[in-house]
Structure formats: structure tokens, C-alpha cells
Amino acid sequence: MEEKKIDVKVCLGTTCFVMGASNLQELIDSVPKRYGDKVEVTGVPCLGLCSIDWKFSKAPYVKVDDDVIKEATIDKVFAAIDKKLGNS
Ligand code: FES
Hints:
Number of strands: 4
Strand content: 15-25%
Distance between the termini: 15 Å
Bound molecules: FE2/S2 (inorganic) cluster
Helix content: 40-55%
Number of domains: 1
CATH topology: Glutaredoxin
Radius of gyration: 13 Å
Number of helices: 4
Strand order of the largest sheet: 2-1-3-4
Shape: globular
CATH superfamily: Glutaredoxin
């Protein structure tokens, strides 16, 4: 049986990068170390969220499956992953 991985996408587009995603690049190393192959993490170009939500300036964005994390930090992303793993 195939296990479904949690899919984490770290936005590395310009807006998010300027707003702090440069720190989040660390997730690309730290997520696999912490969660092994339960979680797939990738850096992606602009998710298209910054332009919709630009007024509110909630970048940087990270997606954990279909959930959007605004003003993402490493701790918020880990918390979201933990929650999903706990629920599954
Ligand atoms: S740069 Fe991240 S959503 Fe646009």
C-alpha cells in the first residue's frame, strides 16, 4: 500500500524571498532530517498567493498539502506537519 506523503512547498518567489523565505530554505534540509520520507519538501517559484493577498503582506507563504501557511516560519511549518501526522 502506498503511503501518502505530506507535500510541503516552500515559496521561493521574489516577494516571499524578500519577506523572509530565505530563512525557510533551511526547511529543504531540515524537514527530511526530521521527518524522513513521510514528508516531501520542495522549493517552488511564486505560488501566486502574494499577488492575491498583497495588501495584507502575509508573505512568506508555505503550502502544507492544501493548507496555506501565511507569514511562515520554520516553527509554524513543523507545527503544521506535526498536526497532520498526528491526525493521520
Ligand atoms: S512570491 Fe511567494 S506567493 Fe508569490
